[in-house]
From TrEMBL:
This is Carboxymuconolactone decarboxylase family protein. It comes from the Bacteria. Residues 24-96 form the Carboxymuconolactone decarboxylase-like domain.
Amino acid sequence: MESRMNLMTNELGAKIGKRFANVSVAIQQSSLPRDLQELLMLRASQINGCGWCVDFHTKEATAAGESAVRFHLVAAWRESTVFTEAERAALALTEEGTRLADAHQGVSDETWASVREHYDDDRIAALVYLVAMINAANRLGVIVRQRGGSYEPGMFAGLTN
């Protein structure tokens, strides 16, 4: 299976991609811990089957100092002991926000209450935007069949602004 298109080599695709990346930079600069951001994006990418994003966020999680054990266990976070209650709340929000078509009620009140218990409004705003953005990125990658394996940490550092 070959990639259908490189959006970043298309003039309009690159223009839109730059703006898309600026939203991601704002999320990265929030008070939400970077290693947690990477784990959440990795989990959504696993659910959505985006090879490029799984590659990207596994490598970025490593670069952010995340342990291999935690990013290997993120797919089975409910059955593991390496995540805090706050991280579990964020992972539940990520999964429920990603599986909207599977869960007709979207994010449950129970999950939302757990998130509210562990995070302030700024971190919740970052969480909500992070879930929305990674799901959009996953869809872009899946639609154009952007394959994983070639990402190098920091390779898009100059893309924004």
